[in-house]
Design brief:
The protein has 253 residues and is of the alpha+beta class. It contains four helices and 14 strands.
């Protein structure tokens, strides 16, 4: 009997210690509005006790817990991430996912969460207004290996096919100092037929955001590289030069 009691006490102790960890990985919000069935919250540990005060879409005061912050973020389709400022009992909502803790300022007790739903992985950026889901990769790969890496995750190179999508990616990368340091490979190539730009799925491209004096239309410049320091405008470049890249996840919604 004593052994059983000790075992029960051990399970209770372990259970209480795991509560915070389980919430970090996945949090089902029970008080979500009827249109939100389930939601996942990811805590970004590298932003613990750090606050970034740019790209704020709204703030709410007198909030006692992180669950309420996440629920409120979920109810606002423009919201991508939220700071729970425990010391001030405040939720601070953002339409980007911050990637550079060094851009913030110290604030004791503050925690940072991102949300995702509809099959978008919890560590990805989910723009619910435009309904697309993606992950930014800071490692450098050439076009072929970058596409292969995205494919291995069940993703593809991000296809920027509208001004709204272009504007969002520019905002996302510009929000963090690490995001705008280098150029990015994106979907699109005229390798098969010079001057005819196709996406990887075979669609003919109709939207372009070329930079000044682009495209060059050289025989060895068959892939698109976007520069976050030039409004994420595009240039046609060789595909064998390693660059950063962005993987997009198709959502069946």
């Amino acid at each position: 009997m004593l052994q059983a009691v000790q075992y029960t006490q051990l399970l209770f102790s372990l259970s209480s210690k795991m509560v915070g960890f389980i919430f970090i990985l996945t949090c089902i919000v029970h008080y979500a509005s009827p249109v939100i069935e389930t939601a996942y919250g990811t805590k970004w540990k590298n932003f613990t006790n750090i606050l970034v005060d740019t790209n704020i879409i709204s703030e709410v005061q007198n909030i006692g817990n992180k669950f309420t912050c996440l629920n409120m973020c979920l109810e606002n389709k423009a919201c991508v991430s939220v700071f729970f400022r425990q010391q001030h009992r405040r939720c601070q909502f953002h339409d980007v996912l911050f990637m550079s803790p060094q851009d913030g300022k110290p604030e004791t007790g503050t925690e940072y969460y991102s949300i995702a739903s509809d099959g978008c992985p919890s560590t990805y950026v989910h723009n619910r207004i435009l309904n697309f889901c993606y992950e930014v990769h800071f490692n450098n790969l050439d076009f072929t290996n970058g596409v292969a890496d995205c494919n291995s995750r069940g993703d593809h190179f991000i296809a920027i096919d509208s001004q709204d999508k272009q504007d969002h990616i520019l905002k996302q990368l510009s929000a963090s100092s690490d995001g705008k340091q280098k150029k990015y490979l994106i979907d699109g190539s005229d390798e098969a037929n010079e001057g005819t730009w196709l996406l990887k799925d075979g669609r003919t491209m109709t939207y372009f955001a070329w930079g000044t004096d682009y495209p060059k239309n050289g025989t060895d410049k068959d892939f698109i590289v976007a520069d976050p320091n030039d409004q994420f405008r595009w240039g046609d470049k060789a595909g064998n030069v390693p660059k950063r890249y962005i993987c997009e996840r198709h959502l069946n919604v």
